[in-house]
Amino acid sequence: MTELTITQATEPKKIPSEWDSIKNNINEISSKSKFKSAVGLSRQWDARKAGREVAATTLEKLGKKPDFFILFSTIHYKDHGGFKEFLKGVWEILPKGTPLMGGTVAGFTNNYGCFTRGATAIAVSYPHMDVSIGVGRDTRKNPKKAAKELSRSIKILQNKSTHNSSFLFCSLPGGTIPQFFGFGRQKVMKSGIISKLSLWLLDLSIRLMQMGPGREDEIFEELGHQLAEWHILGGSAMDDLTQKRSYQFFGNEICSTDLVGLGIKTNLKCDIVTKYGLTRTGIKMHITKKGLRNCVIKEIDGKPATKEFLSRLGWPEDFLDDRLYTKTFYYPLGYTYKGILRPEIIGAFLGDNIACGYSIKTDDIEILSASGVSLIQAMKECADEIVRNKPKIILGVACATQLETLGSEIYHAYDQFKHYFQDTPFMIVYCAGEGSYDPKSPPKQLYDSINLSCLY
Asked: Are 261 and 168 in contact (CB under 8 A)?
């Protein structure tokens, strides 16, 4: 993916030499300031330097000790010092014991611009807020168990806090493309022996190596069940769209197969707004055979799924290869479940089978379409609706394929965000999947959506 850098706003000051220099500045901040939030940025290549700088720029602007620290970075630091060094750099600046969570993403948009290389963080200090972080282990092996583990940590906070408003922000492992021995990582497999074995190999990969579909929908369903009164927003960690690996940050720990979350109880209100950059094509299909926990479509109207999908779009059977696979980003599948449109990313074509990102809960699906115009419009509508709350802080999760679909045109989205948010601290991360829940809407795992949450 070509590196994207849009810096229409002023970048933050460079890293101070020590935390003490930031601490001195804190003393100059008026004690009358109640809610305080700030966004930081680093564009350093070196992992340790980037960690120090993203923490320093955030805290210098915050001017107070943070009650929590949400941290995201692109995958590049794995090969430029490693994530252990990255977190070491962060903790050289961040006060010991600060609740920290986050992960790797394909890119991010914040008050400084839009980037596909670097690190960003957002921090808050507020006296009327209780905070807790938690973790759920081995999400692909047992997603419900992982969700319950995280929920237990959050429920401890719920039982102790006297505040009524509840918000959970989480990062979880996104779907990855497993490497089949002797065949490498392939998003498109032609019909043959290996394609016939691919579903068995994929299931084995999920259970033994925790590779393949992320099973995020199962996680969010359980989170919605366990934390029924909470607002929940999350994104699936990923790399630079190659879908080989992802990492989550939990305190000073680096995870690769775990669900991490930050729970907030406060007297402020919370809201989540979701919009789709998708339109219906009217091309409807009936699934007659599924597999692998309903994540794989084997037959459509009694015919091999891949061939029928191509036929409905008028594409020749030999049209798809790894290069043209990205064309399907513009044509996701979708269905309506519990009154909510559920878009489905096509993860891979395994011979006659179509592997999707999440389980498909109905047998009737439709081919959807996305365009640059529709995606930008969805972002605009989402921003317009969230600012009506007069938010103090905005956290967002968007689909990473929008970076590929929009390319450099994503600066139009950044313009919209800056227009609507003005000086409100905001951070939107581009992920491998988006999940949300609130007490008025069922848990949902999405694709090609923009989701903005706020405290107000």
From this structure: yes
The residue among 329, 345, 370 that closes a domain is 370
**Whether 224 and 361 share a structural domain:** no
pLDDT in tens, 293-313: 898 999 999 999 999 999 999
Cβ atoms of 169 and 262 closer than 8 Å: yes
Q: Within this chain, do residues 130 and 245 fall inside the same structural domain, yes or no? A: yes
- What span, in angstroms and rounded, lies between the C-alpha atoms of 254 and 24? 31
Do residues 365 and 301 touch, judged by C-beta distance below 8 A? no
Whether 232 and 283 map to the same domain: the answer is: no
Name which of 184, 197, 241, 328 is nearest 319 in CA terms. 328
- pTM equals 0.89
Residue 379 lies in a domain: yes
How large a percentage of the chain has pLDDT more than 90? 69
**394-422 pLDDT, tens digit each:** 999 999 989 988 888 888 889 999 999 99
Provide the greatest CA pair distance for the chain. Answer: 71
- 393: in domain: yes
**pLDDT exceeds cutoff 70 at 230:** yes
Tell me the residue range of the domain where 14 lies.
5-174+213-275+374-455
Q: Which of 370, 386, 401 is the last residue of a domain?
A: 370
Residues 108 and 11 in one domain: yes
In a domain, 187, yes or no: no
Q: Are 250 and 271 within one domain?
A: yes
Assess if residue 84 is contained within a domain. yes
Which residue, 339, 453, 331, 307, is CA-closest to 401? Answer: 331
Domain tally, the chain? 2
